[in-house]
Every structure is written in C-alpha cells, then in structure tokens.
Design a protein that fits this description.
The protein is an alpha+beta fold and 397 residues long. It has two domains: 203 residues, Ribosomal Protein S5, domain 2 (2-Layer Sandwich), CATH 3.30.230.10; 176 residues, 2-Layer Sandwich (Alpha-Beta Plaits). Helix content is 38%, strand content 22%. The protein is built from eleven helices and twelve strands. Strands 1, 2, 3, 4, 5, 6, 7 and 12 form an eight-stranded mixed sheet that branches. Strand 3 and strand 4 form a beta hairpin. The protein is globular and about 60 Å long. The structure holds alpha-D-galactopyranose. The site of alpha-D-galactopyranose has 12 residues, from helix 5.
C-alpha cells in the first residue's frame, strides 16, 4: 500500500468491541458503554482560539475510545491500553489540580472539572484505547478528555450539550493538567461532523459546518507527522498567549480578534514600545483574515485556491509567531517543491504535524519526496497519511 494511502497512524485493530473486551479483562465485568472522541487536524486558524478568533479544524477518523462503568464507592480507576503501568486509582473526592497523575491527569481532570461544576459525578471504572498519536499536534489530549466527558455524561445522565462538554474538557486541561490551551481542540472533538470542516467563532462559540469534500475535487490533505514530539506545557505556548494578551491590553481591545485587517498598520504603530509582541499581533490578525479567505474559497467551490493561504499561514507561524521547527519547515518546503498546492504546520507548534493540500495524482510523489528529504537531513522517518473528515464524539457501543 502506498504510504499516503495508510488509513491512519496506527494500523492495529481498534474498535468498540476490542475496547469493551479490554475493559472486561482489566475490571472483570462488562462496561456500561463505550464512547468515542476523535483527534483533529486544523486546516487553518492557528493560535487564534485564545484571541477570540476563528478556527477551521476537522475531525480525524482516528479516535480515543472510553469503555466505562460507574462505581458506588466514589473511587476512580483509570486504565490505558496505550500506556504501560496498570490501573491508576484515586478517590474522586481526593482530586485536586496539580496532582501528578501522568497520563491519568486528563481523564481525572474531567471528573474533577465536572464535580467542581457541581455535577453529580461519582466513581468510575475507565479503560481507554486510542489511535490518535500523542504529541503529534493532532489533539490526542482533547480526544482523551472528550471521550471521558461523554462517558461520564452517559453514565451519570448529565444531559450536557456539546458546548458544555467542550468547556468542561478545556477546564480539565487548563486548571487540572495545567496547559493554558484554547477551546478549539475540545470543540473539534465534540462538534465536528463527517465530511465537514468546523468553522468556530471562539468569541461566541457559534459553529458552522463547512462542506469539505476534497475527494470530489480530486484532492486530498496529507498529514505529515514529523514525529518530533512537542510539549505544550513547556512554557512557550503560555508565553505566546501572554504576549497576545499584553498586546490586546495595550491596544485597549478585549482580544486581538477585535483588530480588523485594515487596522493592522495602525495597531503595529501603536505597539512601537512593545517590539516583542508586534509579530504576534501581525500573525493573529492576518491569520483570522486567512480563515475568512479560506471559507470564501471553499464556499465558492474552489478548494485549490486554498493552497496559497495555507502556505502563507505557515510563513506567518514560522516568521512572526516563531513556533515552527526544522522538521516542520522541511516538510512544508519539500511538499511544496514536490507539487503540493499549499502546506503548513498544524496545531500548537514546536514539532508535531504539517498538512499539505495535494492533487490525488501528486500524493505519492509528495510523500516520497518528504521521506527522501527527511532521510537526507538525518531526521527520523515521518509518517504520512491522508486525513478525511470523520465524525465528532459519539457513543460507540
Ligand atoms: C493547541 C491548543 C489549541 C490551539 C492550538 C493552536 O492545539 O490546544 O487550543 O491554541 O494549539 O492553534
């Protein structure tokens, strides 16, 4: 099978039946159900989500599955099929932000966020399996959080809507895990739909499902996972966020979203005293504008015309936001040189994945060129696969 035809990053058997069976093996009883939440790829709109801006992600068909059953003794038992180390057990009423629970902090954080919001959530047995690669800029954390949140919603009959689920999952990550992420990834996991990209206005949380049928146009979006693993918690993400907030305060707006593209020169002039934040502002303002331009081109039935906007977005992230790295730049430059219509890094940055918009007929040559360039540069082999927009979180069994 050609590399770009691989169905997703992990070819291992995966599915609700397997996760159900794994739960039984770990806990010796049947789960109440199995819930699924996808990873995502962001087409465009990077680092705009904590600036009240626009994002345009779509769900991957790679998912995290959560098999779960309630417990009456208030204990939380967490097990992952992907991380060695056995069951992590902690009483739900002993959960507190900052506790070092490793991977288990994500599901535990969701329980904590729900209880902290006054929701009637008690103990739970949870087994998780995931095909979303971790640290690849494809939102494995949000998939984990949202699968857990949906499972708890089902087990405890909470009746939460998708927006509330996303907010609770984000709160788990912000306040319990300690990563100051925006709302994009959790919303993508809860609210994306098959065949669509999701336009999210992060200011008022309005959503629009944007038909995203590359296949019908003879196109595809390749994901190039550089295998450089990033850690958003390492401070650089928080620094960018703080810089954007400082700039907004200086400009007297509640968020950089309020600076329209035509106001950019004036805003940059007003920031003469804060030279370090000017490039951040330039990225956010132009990126919000690029999201609107991408939407216009998709609405006009011209997906090929999206390519240059992706490439311009990468230059902005590399030069102004300064969050790319050698491997991401190599992936983008090589894809473009091999015939991609556009390419950019995707996600938080400092590693992870790039995306490349390619003609079907060029997919193999782009894939081969990227592999060759990585080998020549002495980088680990990247993983290249075609991403097609899959469903948002749902009950799987
Ligand atoms: C990470 C965060 C998101 C978003 C992106 C960058 O994925 O979790 O909230 O800020 O980075 O667009």
């Amino acid at each position: 099978m050609p590399a770009h035809e691989a169905a997703g990053p992990t070819p291992a058997p995966h599915g609700a039946a397997r996760t159900d069976a794994a739960f039984r093996a770990v806990y010796g009883a049947a789960p109440t159900g199995v819930w699924a939440a996808p990873g995502r790829v962001n087409l465009i709109g990077e680092h705009t989500d904590y600036n009240d801006g626009f994002v345009l992600p779509f769900a991957l068909t790679d998912t995290t599955l959560a098999a779960a059953a309630p417990r009456t003794d208030g204990a939380l038992r967490l097990h992952s099929g992907d991380v060695p180390g056995g069951v992590v057990e902690v009483p739900a009423d002993a959960l507190a932000p900052g506790r070092d629970l490793g991977w288990a902090a994500y599901p535990a954080g969701v329980v904590w966020a729900m209880r902290d919001a006054g929701l009637p959530v008690g103990g739970v047995d949870l087994h998780l399996d995931s095909t979303v690669p971790t640290g690849a800029g494809l939102s494995s954390s949000a998939a984990l959080e949202v699968a857990t949140a949906l499972a708890l919603d089902g087990l405890y009959g909470l009746g939460l809507d998708r927006r509330e689920l996303a907010r609770l999952a984000q709160r788990a990550e912000n306040a319990f895990v300690g990563v100051p992420c925006g709302i994009m990834d959790q919303t993508a996991a809860t609210s994306c739909t098959t065949g669509h990209a999701l336009l999210l206005d992060t200011r008022d949380h309005t959503l629009r499902q944007v038909p995203f049928d590359l296949t019908g146009h003879g196109l595809r979006l390749l994901v190039i996972d550089t295998r450089v693993r990033h850690a958003l918690a390492d401070g650089a993400y928080a620094e960018r966020r703080a810089g954007c907030e400082r700039a907004a305060r200086h400009l007297g707006v509640s968020a950089l979203r309020d600076i329209a593209i035509g106001q950019l020169p004036g805003a940059l002039a007003d920031l003469a005293a804060l030279p370090d934040v000017r490039p951040l502002v330039r990225h956010i303002v132009t990126e919000n504008h690029r999201v609107q331009q991408v939407i216009a081109r998709l609405d006009a039935g011209e997906p090929r015309a999206v390519g240059p906007l992706l490439t311009a977005g990468h230059a902005s992230l590399r030069d102004d936001f300064a969050i790319s790295c050698a491997e991401l730049d190599l992936a983008v430059d090589t894809a473009l040189a091999a015939g991609a219509l556009g390419a950019r890094m995707t996600g938080g940055g400092f590693g992870g994945s790039a995306v490349a918009l390619v003609e079907d007929a060029a997919a193999q040559q782009v894939t081969d060129a990227v592999h060759t360039a990585f080998t020549a540069a002495g980088h680990a082999a990247p993983r290249v696969f075609t991403a097609r927009p899959g469903p948002g979180a749902h009950r799987a069994a």
